[in-house]
Amino acid sequence: MFLIFCSDPMNKNVVDSDYQLEYTIAKSLGFTVKLISLEELLEGNIDGALSKISAVEHPESALYRGWMMKPKIYENFYTGLHKKNIILINNPDAYRNGHWLPHSYDKIKDFTPYSNWIQIENIKNDFDQILKNLSEFGQKPIIIKDYVKSRKHEWNESFFIPDASDSQHATKVIKSFIDRQGEDINEGIVFREFVNLERITVHTKSQMPLSKEYRLFYLENRFLFQFDYWEEIQYDEDKPDLTIFNRLAQQISSNFFTMDIGKTVYGDWIVIEIGDGQVSGLPIDSDILGFYKAIKERMG
Predict the structure, then answer these.
(1) Which residue numbers delimit the ATP-grasp domain (predicted)?
(2) Residues 210-221, buried b or exposed e (16+ Cβ, 10 A)?
(3) Angstrom distance (rounded) from CA 95 to CA 89
(4) Does the model's pTM come out above 0.70?
(5) What SS3 class is residue 87?
(6) For a Cys-Cys bond, which of 147, 189, 191, 284 suits 100, CB 3.0-4.6 Å?
């Protein structure tokens, strides 16, 4: 198996500094590591982006570990590698299934907060469709994100809406979110019922509540590795029972994905979201060596 990382934006011959540790560990374990230029990939220059990767005679599987990219860019990336006989672990459909919340929602809806969404091209200037979506939540608190990312570190300005029926305040938060996301907005906007998680502390800068959450990695629909989600808090030894989540993982149409879970104030564990495992971050102060060893043992 090849492991593919992003190169430094200014030098195609060295790995992006943010992935240096992962790259070094992977290489030390005997993985064949390759570099791509994300900048050229985003510009549509596929040949230039993949210039450091040579074609192989026999099909080789590959796993990307790098920055997020929109599904259309990923499709170009996948196709370019495929022409070199290198097959990414997730095809474009599988990438969407992990990357976009609406594509995985039906599989996790019984274990995650109620959600609805609107594609960005369907959002009218008068916000009629948005108000219709908001009405489904009554007076409940909700949060807003796009199909992939939120602005949770701008908690009050662009993320949290205390009362979905307060259309004036909701509109202000939604417009702030859309404006701040700008061209980076992913496909549309998603509204989710806000569920109180077991709060441990608050973020020192954003004042966002920090709760007991974990990031679970799944490879070929089987549990692979577990990380504490927040680096800022001290986790106790009370780990969640993963039986339900491991069963749920069998339904996700992706070969490599993450499942973020959190503990509610009532003591229940819920799914927060699914993510594509190739673009899901790892906490810096965590067992990254153990993570790559687990991949090595599973994939050979």
Answers:
(1) 137-284
(2) bbbbbbbbbbeb
(3) 9
(4) yes
(5) strand
(6) 147
At 192-251, the pLDDT tens digits run 999 999 887 776 666 677 888 999 999 999 999 999 888 777 777 778 999 999 999 999
d(CA 2, CA 202) in angstroms, rounded, equals: 39
Q: What sections of the chain are H helices per DSSP?
A: 20-28, 38-42, 46-49, 71-82, 92-99, 101-108, 128-135, 155-158, 167-181, 243-249, 288-299
Q: In this structure, which amino acid lies at residue 38? A: L
Q: How many CB atoms lie within 10 A of CB 36?
A: 24
User: Which residues lie below 8 Å from residue 173, measured CB to CB, with a gap of 6+?
Assistant: 144, 157, 158, 159, 160, 161
162: Cβ–Cβ under 8 A, 6 or more apart, which residues?
A: 141, 169
Cβ–Cβ < 8 Å for 49, 261: no
Residue with token string 């959600």 = 115
For 146-173, what is each residue's pLDDT tens digit? 999 999 889 999 999 999 999 999 999 9
Q: For residue 104, what are its two tokens?
A: 């995985």
Neighbouring C-beta atoms of residue 142, cutoff 10 Å: 25
H or E, element range at 257:
strand 256-263
Q: What is the pLDDT of residue 169?
A: 96
